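User: I'll paste a sequence; please echo it back and then give the predicted structure.

Assistant: Echoing your sequence first, then the prediction.
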Amino acid sequence: MSKHTPGPWMVAKDNPRKVVSHSIDGLDPLTGENLVGGASEGPYAAANARLIALAPEMKEALESIAAVGVHEIHDFEAIAKRMQATALAMLAKLESA
């Protein structure tokens, strides 16, 4: 598993095209932030920043789906509902960001 800047990540208050973390690892003493993603330009930059900011939570959601045990397979409907709820929660977060 690759290492990444600890979450949570968020869109920077001073630049909607920059993603930052307030984790203590690598904090900039002037801004109090840790740059996660650069400030790109273009029509999709702000939406890309929102998507990138949710990456740690999306990783956790995928890990929770992947952790479904073989012993749970007998209750496929419940598993499918849980996976759908996880996916819908991530999509709602993305839309509201």
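The chain has two domains: 1-53, 54-97. The mean pLDDT is 74.
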